[in-house]
Amino acid sequence: MMLMHFLMRLRNKFVTIELKNGTVVMGYVSSVDLAMNFHLNRVSMTLKSEKPASVDAVSIRGNNIRYIIFPNNLNLDALMIDIPQQTRRTRKTSGQAHSQGVAVRGGRDRNSGRGGPCGRHSARGGGRGGAKSWNKR
């Protein structure tokens, strides 16, 4: 996640990106999303063994990137400052979740089983013990 926050701070910086097919793309970073997709402005694209072509804007899918070349004058220390550390969220154990009536993944909530509410909570019976008559005569 730190890498993505770093790449997102490259807005308006000039970068060179080489793609897996050998294409070299040079331009100013407009934005970067969490899938590492780059959106560049004022782009010069050089396809493998062809002349460079100028384009206004290009979007590059993240999985097609071989590597990114940063300019020598880019201050990496300034970009790395204040990148938020990922905080770990504590998961509730199944006992904590059941005590609050919350369904846990793969489990059931407090008042129901497979066929709905338990027999003792329902007027019809049912539940685990089969159809039991609560109104004995």
What does this structure look like?
With 137 residues, the protein is α+β, with helices and mostly antiparallel strands. The chain has a domain at 2-80: SH3 type barrels (Roll). The chain is 13% helix and 31% strand. The chain contains three helices and seven strands; from the N terminus they run H-E-E-E-E-E-H-H-E-E. The protein has helices spanning 2-8, 76-80, 94-99, and strands at 14-19, 24-32, 38-46, 52-60, 65-69, 112-113, 116-117. The chain has a five-stranded antiparallel sheet. A hairpin with a 5-residue loop joins strand 2 (24-32) and strand 3 (38-46). The protein is elongated, with a radius of gyration of 29 Å. The N and C termini lie far apart (68 Å). Residues 113-130 have a biased composition (Gly residues). Residues 87-137 are annotated as: Disordered. GO terms for molecular function: RNA binding. Belongs to the snRNP core protein family.
Write the layout of secondary structure elements.
Layout: H1 2-8, E1 14-19, E2 24-32, E3 38-46, E4 52-60, E5 65-69, H2 76-80, H3 94-99, E6 112-113, E7 116-117
Antiparallel strand pairs: 1-2, 1-5, 2-3, 3-4, 6-7
Question: What do the pLDDT scores average to?
Answer: 78
Largest sheet: 5 strands, antiparallel
* Total of helices: 3
Beta-strand percent range:
25-35%
Shape: elongated
**CATH topology description of the domain at 2-80:** SH3 type barrels
Question: Reading side by side through the largest sheet, how are the strands ordered?
Answer: 4-3-2-1-5
